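Q: what sequence does this backbone want?
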C-alpha cells in the first residue's frame, strides 16, 4: 500500500474524529451542530480525493459512484423522517465524501473487505451502537432498582422540575387525570405536559433522553476505521 494513500487515510481519520467530536460536544450542549463543520469535512474530503486521484489513483474507482448515491439515500431517509436531525443527515453526506472507500492504515481496519461503501459501514456501525442504548438504560435502571417495562428500556425516572431543564422527552402523558405511557413522545408540547404534572402534584415521571445521534456516529466512525463493518462481519460469521 502506497505511503501516500496511508497518509491520506490518516488525514481522513483525524479530520473525521476532530469534526465529529466537536459536533458531538455542541450537540450534547445545545442540540445544534454548525453547518460549517460539514462544509469543512466535505471540502477536505474532496481535496483528498483529488490528491489521491492525481498521485496514486484508485484501485476501485467505481466506489466513487457511491458518493452521490449515498448523498441521495441519506436525503431520502431524512425526508422520510428515518433520520430525524438535519445535522445528522449533513454529517453522513459529508462522510460519504470524506471516506467513500475503505481505508488501509497498517493492519486496520481489522475486518477488511466490506462490500458496501465505507460511508455506509460507518452509518451501519452507528445504528448498531444506537440500538445498544436501550440495553444501557436497562442496566442503569437495574442499578437504581427501577424495573418497569417497557419504561426501563426507554428511559429513567426524573424529577419533573429537573426534567424541565434537561433535554428529555416525557414517556408519560396525563389524559383525563390518568397517567398514560407514550411510546413515541413527539406529538405534544413537552414543557406543557411537564407543567401539567406539576399542577397535579406529580413529582417524578419516566423520561427518555434526547440522545444526539452524533455521538453514536462518532463512535461508529472510530469503530469503522479500527474494526471495519461490524454488521458485515457479524453476517459473515453465519
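A:
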Amino acid at each position: 500500500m502506497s505511503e501516500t494513500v496511508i497518509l491520506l487515510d490518516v488525514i481522513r481519520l483525524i479530520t473525521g474524529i476532530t469534526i465529529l467530536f466537536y459536533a458531538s460536544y455542541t450537540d450534547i450542549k445545545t442540540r445544534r451542530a454548525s453547518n460549517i463543520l460539514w462544509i469543512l469535512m466535505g471540502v477536505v474530503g474532496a481535496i483528498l480525493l483529488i490528491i489521491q486521484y492525481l498521485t496514486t489513483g484508485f484501485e476501485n474507482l467505481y466506489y466513487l459512484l457511491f458518493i452521490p448515491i449515498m448523498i441521495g439515500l441519506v436525503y431520502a431517509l431524512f425526508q422520510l423522517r428515518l433520520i430525524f436531525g438535519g445535522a445528522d443527515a449533513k454529517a453522513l453526506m459529508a462522510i460519504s465524501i470524506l471516506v467513500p472507500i475503505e481505508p488501509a492504515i497498517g493492519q486496520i481496519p481489522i475486518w477488511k473487505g466490506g462490500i458496501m461503501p465505507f460511508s455506509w459501514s460507518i452509518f451501519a456501525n452507528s445504528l448498531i451502537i444506537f440500538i445498544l442504548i436501550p440495553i444501557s438504560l436497562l442496566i442503569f435502571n437495574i442499578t437504581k432498582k427501577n424495573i418497569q417495562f417497557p419504561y426501563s428500556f426507554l428511559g429513567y425516572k426524573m424529577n419533573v422540575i429537573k426534567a424541565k431543564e434537561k433535554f428529555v422527552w416525557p414517556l408519560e402523558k396525563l389524559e383525563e387525570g390518568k397517567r398514560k405511557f407514550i411510546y413515541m413522545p413527539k406529538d405534544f408540547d413537552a414543557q406543557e405536559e411537564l407543567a401539567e404534572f406539576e399542577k397535579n402534584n406529580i413529582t417524578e415521571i419516566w423520561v427518555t433522553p434526547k440522545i444526539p445521534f452524533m455521538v453514536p456516529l462518532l463512535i461508529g466512525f472510530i469503530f469503522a476505521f479500527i474494526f471495519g463493518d461490524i454488521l458485515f462481519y457479524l453476517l459473515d460469521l453465519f
